[in-house]
Amino acid sequence: MLLAGPGIDIITPHITDAHAIDYPCLHPGFVCELPLPRWAPIHIGSFAIDMSPTKHVVWLGIAALLCVITMLMAARAHAKTTFGGQRAPSGFGNGMEAFVLFLRNEVVIPNVGPRGDKFVPFILTLFFFILFANLCGLIPYGSTATGNISVTATLALVTFVVVEIAGMREQGAGYLSTIFYWPHDVPLAVKMPMTLIMTPVEIVGKFTKPFALAIRLFANMTAGHVVLLALIGLIFTFKSYIVAPAPLAMAVAISMLELFVSLLQAFIFALLAAVFIGQIRTSSH
Known about the structure:
With 285 residues, the protein is mainly alpha-helical.
């Protein structure tokens, strides 16, 4: 067990990864570190892959567990109101139902298009998982796993695979038109150069979408903590506690804003995933 020293950083541990997790204690800084197990790396040819759990992995697991618990509680509350003789849902069940119905009716169905119900579970999973992962970084001793580019890139990669498979299943052979640009209303002499020029653009466009998803979520979740670090750092820059109230007040305001940003970024990620699925299912040249 590693004990925190007197010069402990209370901001960057929320976004940086490590092979230890923080927990409260009575030592200086009120933070101690619990080392996580280290496993021997897996060797694939000349590459070594370290599968040891890290702080972000632990908090991703916590976010997933919170998702499961929340959905089970909502399902139980809904079952009680549906089969228990009550006329309308109330309390927690009513709030979660409103959330789910809003995402289904206002985000998934209008953007995904016909037969969009089958994508509702995926979009809801993205939204709630990212939301809980974002919020975990705002609690004391927590960590923002979505402030790790590897995490956001993996979420974007999963979304990319779902988008492309959705396009293949919906369009069949027509899916090739999303890769190879082939205009049908121009002469052949014009088609060939346009195809040579636009096909690379179409291919690059496929990869810029998940890239934008990954960078947007990563940058927004990292930026809030960096701003907090800068504000708190003003106290030590001026080396005076007289200026402390102003940076602390601004830090509290930024923290409140971060609550909204956590919800907003989860919503934007889910919305764009639905838009990309809808685009590829209905795309044509």
